Amino acid sequence: MFTLTDLTIPIIAAPMTGGPSTPDLVVTVSQAGGLGFLAAGYKTPDATARQIQEVQHRTQLPFGVNLFVPQTQRFDENAIAAYRARLQSTASKYGVELPKVPRIDNDWFDDKIDLVISLGVPVVSLTFGLPSPSVVAQLQTAGTYVVATVTTVAEAEAAASLGVDGLCVQGADAGGHRATFHVGDEPEPIPLVDLVKAVSLRTDTPIIAAGGIHTGDQVADLLERGAAAVQLGTAFLRSPESGANPAHKDALVSEQFTHTVVTRVFSGRPARALLNDFIAEHEGHAPAAYPQVHHLTSRLRAAAGKEGNPQRLALWAGVGFRNTSAEPAAKILRDIWAQTRTLHAP
After folding, report:
1. Which domain holds residue 83?
2. Residue from 151, 222, 227, 150 nearest 188 by CA
3. What are the residues whose beta carbons fall under 8 Å from the beta carbon of 304, sequence distance 6 or more?
4. Are residues 340 and 282 in the same domain?
5. Are residues 228 and 114 located together in one domain of the fold?
6. Residue 247 placed within a domain
7. At 84, phi and psi to the nearest 5?
8. Do residues 273 and 339 share a domain?
9. What's the pLDDT tens digit per position in 282-334?
């Protein structure tokens, strides 16, 4: 079975839903000595299988697949209806019909578990909660290294008690969704280094530190604090291998966008993105309902992507977005590791 100590470079390319985490990015990062990750969230099992098989065809090196744990929390249907009405004028401008929101959406979780087991995926990470003990046992019996994504010490302890192999400890500066176990939870503003230290004092489960990491000195500090590896997402967004929308890539270096905010307007879950017109217009109106709000806004975001309009896109980004580079992913990885090695002896 894979372990984090197998990595030549203890840097992981975060699974980024919506297109950035292409097989090309995954293969490139793994071949450069790190660990690439596919994002299976929102993808059908067939689409996920095609990406896994493409990666396996191109490299024999370890890689990971991220799965979303099904959400069971109730949501306010009246609040969803009110938000739908609020979005109607924007939908009309794009000629988009807002979809009916499903009451339940498990993102094909059981099918995807069967899929990663049948295809022998080396690493699987889980986000938005914990599965049943039997799911963890199934994966581990198949030889898969299981990682749970956590945002608090309490979540880390719950995941460790389940027997997972690793903890992805996500700090407040992370781009995209915070991986809180409950949709209504608000992220705690604890610095990542402090969160990693606190978690390491409560469990011996290996830690992957994630959230707002973009420099070698940050990596060195986190490794010194007890992390076995670090996970970077935003740092790879502008690389040629990233499948991020061109308007998203350009926004990371545009003077139009000066800072990030945590918002629910795109998905119903707290997520960090560049502040744009869509957020400014709808902030405070989206209910804590996931993935219902995601489905409600998905066609609007797709239309904005086709138009290349960053003011209506979900411009997911960590706080270090200004440090992103358009260099190849392998160079980004190796440059950060070279900086790290000057400060941290592996």
Report:
1. 74-102+253-316
2. 151
3. 94, 247, 278, 310, 311, 312, 313
4. no
5. yes
6. no
7. -60, -45
8. no
9. 999 999 999 999 999 999 999 999 999 999 999 999 999 999 999 999 999 99
